[in-house]
Each structure stands twice: as structure tokens, then as C-alpha cells.
Amino acid sequence: MKATGSCGIVGASGQMWVVMITSPRRWFPLGHRRQFQGDRHRGDGAVLVEHHADRVGPCSHAAEPSDDPRRWCAVVYDAMNTATSIPRVVLHPLHSPGLAGWLAAVEGIELEVPANDDAVAAALEAGAEVLVTYRWEDRFLAGPLCWVQAISAGLEQFPIDAFRARNIRLTSARGAHAPAVAEHAVALLLTLVRRIGEAMRDMPDRGWVPYRSAYEVSGRTLGILGLGTIGEEVARRAAGLGMRVIGSKRRPDRYDGVAEWVVGPEGTLEVCREAHALVVALPHAEDTIGLVGPEELAALRGGWLVNVGRGSAVDESALVEALREGTLLGAGLDVFTVEPLPPDSPLWDLPNVVITPHSAWSSDRLAARLTDLFAGNLDAYRGLGEWRNLVL
């Protein structure tokens, strides 16, 4: 459906033009294209449009930058059409169970679920403008891609600079995985503390060892590295188990949660010295690589480590040594430096290690949360709402 309104230049002042739009106000996608400057309607129905010639890209619906305000009137009209069109949405085949069915129920989109990466690239090159994915290949940029909805919280796989140069919107799935990952972290910790992992290793041989010395978490201190959305969910659950919670956050002055003591990344060693158990919920970044090394593991002095963030945050060689020597009582690991974890990794053979295959995100409720996030951002893409988890 095409918008039936029209627009005309009413006045101009420097880089700012007043554009009169006679179509209904809801058709104008405020903030949808980067040359538009916020919600600046006047009482007479006009809209202030700011010219940013350097921001025109494949998603601006203008072939080239122009200093002619009449050209920008055409851009406004084209953007009005975008708000009422049906976008082609590609869902990468490697996605959360059930997500395709949930997205298919979203009104106003043409959904495609290609069979492989080649088919994804072909669909995007053929004109699909929206991609829902956690995987990325540079050939996905071949077509008129305008918006990528990541279904992961981490975004290190995406070419941020290339997206910025092309005015491609990027939104993350921050928060959608948090409940499941937090429960998984607590499950790994309890599996270690209660020595359930070792009991499971006895099952193939029908081993019956009832007198292993286990532990309780109540009254102990849990350190959490990365008190973001996931880390805070872990903190809430640990506090419910009677644990004292401390941790780190990039901006500790902005923290408002259940942890009673929070420091910046420079306080990582102090957190380890204070904690009986450590949960790593850090994203991949240059300053988090190897953040937990020999000194931090030694500071845990016979405690436990759980990693549900990124494998790169923990020095795996130092971890193996700490586990073998008894510096650590155990480790519950969902993420690794290399994934899948190589068959020759010594972590497989250590009895005090519990391994899960980067599956902490998995949940029967995840597809519904991702779809709710996508639907809200679809409104924003059309100019009818606010973006959630907007990165670019």
C-alpha cells in the first residue's frame, strides 16, 4: 500500500527545512531514516527535517546526497511509503527452536527462512531488507539490507563499521536470554557444590558412592564478573538461595541491584579474593580477554568457577592447572575459547568439571521473547514506535 499524502517546502533556515506533510502524522517514520531529526512537528502539521548529506546510505531511500530541499521532500515521501510497505524479512536457518513459527504470526512482514548461508545471501541480494540472525557473513551485505535484528546478546560477529557506513540499523537481543542463562549458571554452580556431576559420571558403571563430601551455598559469597542484564539475574537468584553477592561492572556508579559491593573491572582480583564462587558473565571485548588468569584463580582459594559469558574471559590453560592442582574445587563451563570444545581438550577428562555446549540460552520461552522484541522494533523500523536494544 502506498501512502496517499503529499509534502511541500514551507520554509528554510540554514540546514533545517520545514516540510509540510499532508498525509496522516502516523505515516511519517520519525527517526526511521537518519536524516530526520526527532519528533519536531509544528502545530500546523509541518515537520522539521534536518539535512545530513554525509549520512545518506542504502537505507536512506535517496540515491545521492543533495542540497536541494525539494529532493528531501521526495525522501520524506518515500519514507512515508516505507512505513506502509511490507518488508521482506529473512530468518537465518540457525535460530532458536520455534522462532520461525512465532515470527510467521507477526503481521505485516513477508518472512523467508532459507535453508543455508548461500540461500540467505541470495535472498538478501534479491531485495530482502531485514535479517534476523546471530550468524554473519560479509556477503550478506550484497543487497539492500537496512536492519539486522540479532538474536544474540553478544555482537562481536557483526561488522559494526560497515553497518555504520551503510546506515544499517542493528538491534541486539539483550535481556531475552537472561532468565535462562541465569538459571543455567545457578544450575552449574549447584551441580558442582552438591557434586552431582561426579555422581553422574558414576552412573555408566552403576557406581554407588554415598559419602562424598558436598557443600551448601547459603551463607557463602558469590562474585559475579559482569553485573549486566544476565549478571543481575544471577545475583537475584543467588540472593534467594541465601548467598551474599558482590561483583564488578564497567560503571559501578550506575549499579542499582541486589549485590552489596560492586567495583569496576580493575577490582576483579579483589572480587575473587572475597568470593567462595565466581560466575563470569562478561561479553567478549579486548579488555575482557584473559581477565580471569592464574592470579585470579588462585585468589578463589579452593572455590568454584562458572562461566556463562564468553570463553575468552578465562585463561583456559591456567584453569586446567588450577583444577588439576586443587586450587579450584570445580568449574562449570558453558563457553570456551574454541567452540566446539576440541576433543583433545583436557577439560573433558577432569572429574571436577561440568561441561555444557554453549546451551545456557536455550529455553522454551525464548522464541516468544525474541518475537516480542522483533515486533516492537518492527514498529520502530516503520517509524511508529521506539527502538529497543538499538546499537546503531
Protein model, in words:
The protein is built from eleven helices and 15 strands. Strand 4, helix 2 (99-104) and strand 5 form a beta-alpha-beta unit. The protein has helices spanning 69-84, 99-104, 117-125, 160-165, 178-193, 196-202, 229-240, 268-274, 294-299, 316-325, 366-381, and strands at residues 7-13, 16-21, 46-50, 88-91, 110-112, 130-133, 147-150, 169-171, 221-225, 244-248, 261-263, 277-280, 304-307, 330-333, 353-355. The chain has three domains: 7-84; 88-176 and 366-381, NAD(P)-binding Rossmann-like Domain (Rossmann fold), CATH 3.40.50; 178-355, Rossmann fold (3-Layer(aba) Sandwich). Mean pLDDT is 85; it is low at 1-58 and 60-81. The longest helix is centred in the first third of the chain and has 16 residues, at 69-84. The strands form three sheets. The chain has a seven-stranded parallel sheet with strand order 11-10-9-12-13-14-15, sandwiched between helices. Strands 5-4-6-7-8 form a five-stranded parallel sheet, with helices on both faces. The chain is α/β, with parallel strands linked by helices.
Q: Compute the number of structural domains.
A: 3
**Main sheet: strands, sense, barrel:** 7 strands, parallel
Question: What number is the mean pLDDT?
Answer: 85
**Highest CATH level, the class of the largest domain:** Alpha Beta
* Poorly predicted runs: 1-58, 60-81
CATH architecture identity of the largest domain:
3-Layer(aba) Sandwich
Listing every helix as H and every strand as E from the N terminus to the C terminus, the arrangement reads EEEHEHEHEEHEHHEHEEHEHEHEEH
**CATH homologous superfamily caption of the largest domain:** NAD(P)-binding Rossmann-like Domain
β-strand number: 15
Q: What class, by secondary structure content? A: alpha/beta
Separation of termini?
Answer: 28 Å
Question: What is the general shape?
Answer: elongated
CATH topology call of the largest domain: Rossmann fold
